[in-house]
Automatic annotation (TrEMBL):
It is a multi-pass membrane protein. It is found in: Cell membrane. It holds the Pfam family LrgA. The chain crosses the membrane at residues 27-47, 59-78, 90-111. The keyword Hydrolase applies. The lineage of its organism: Bacteria, Pseudomonadati, Pseudomonadota, Betaproteobacteria, Burkholderiales. GO terms for molecular function: hydrolase activity. Keywords: Cell membrane, Hydrolase, Membrane, Transmembrane, Transmembrane helix. One of its GO terms (cellular component) is plasma membrane. The keyword Hydrolase applies. It comes from the Bacteria. This is Putative effector of murein hydrolase LrgA (UPF0299 family).
C-alpha cells in the first residue's frame, strides 16, 4: 500500500503540473512544473514520507529504463536532429557544463558549511 501512495503522489503532482501549464499557457514542460510543486510540498512538510523515499529510491535504481522512450523519440526525429545538430549539440554541451559547475559550487559550499559546524576540538584533531 505504501508504494501505491507514493506512485499516486508522483503522478498527481505531474498531473497538477500539466494542468497548470495547459491553463496558463506557460512554455515549459508540465512535468517540470509538477516536480517543482512536489519540491515545494516536500519543503513545506520538511521532508518526504518514508513510503515516498523508499519508492523513489527503487525508481532511481532503475533510472536507465526510463531513458528508453527518450532514445526512441530521438530516433523517430533523427532527420530533424541531423538538420539542426549544431543547436542540439550546443544545448547538450552547455547544459552539461552548467550542471557540472552548479554541482561543484554546491558541493564546495556544503563542505564549507560542514567544516564550519564542527566543534573547535574536532577541527584541531583533523589538522
Amino acid at each position: 500500500m505504501p508504494v501505491l501512495f507514493a506512485v499516486t503522489t508522483l503522478l498527481f503532482m505531474q498531473f497538477l503540473g500539466e494542468a497548470f501549464v495547459r491553463l496558463t499557457g506557460l512554455p515549459v514542460p508540465g512535468a517540470l512544473v509538477g516536480l517543482l510543486l512536489l519540491f515545494a510540498v516536500l519543503c513545506l512538510n520538511r521532508g518526504a514520507p518514508k513510503s515516498l523515499r523508499d519508492t523513489t529510491s527503487h525508481i532511481l535504481q532503475h533510472l536507465m529504463l526510463l531513458f528508453i522512450p527518450v532514445v526512441a523519440g530521438i530516433m523517430l526525429h533523427f532527420e530533424r536532429i541531423a538538420n539542426e545538430w549544431v543547436p542540439f549539440l550546443a544545448a547538450s554541451l552547455g547544459g552539461t557544463v552548467i550542471t557540472i559547475l552548479v554541482t561543484a559550487i554546491t558541493f564546495r559550499w556544503m563542505l564549507q558549511r560542514a567544516e564550519a559546524s564542527k566543534p573547535p576540538e574536532a577541527k584541531r584533531s583533523a589538522s
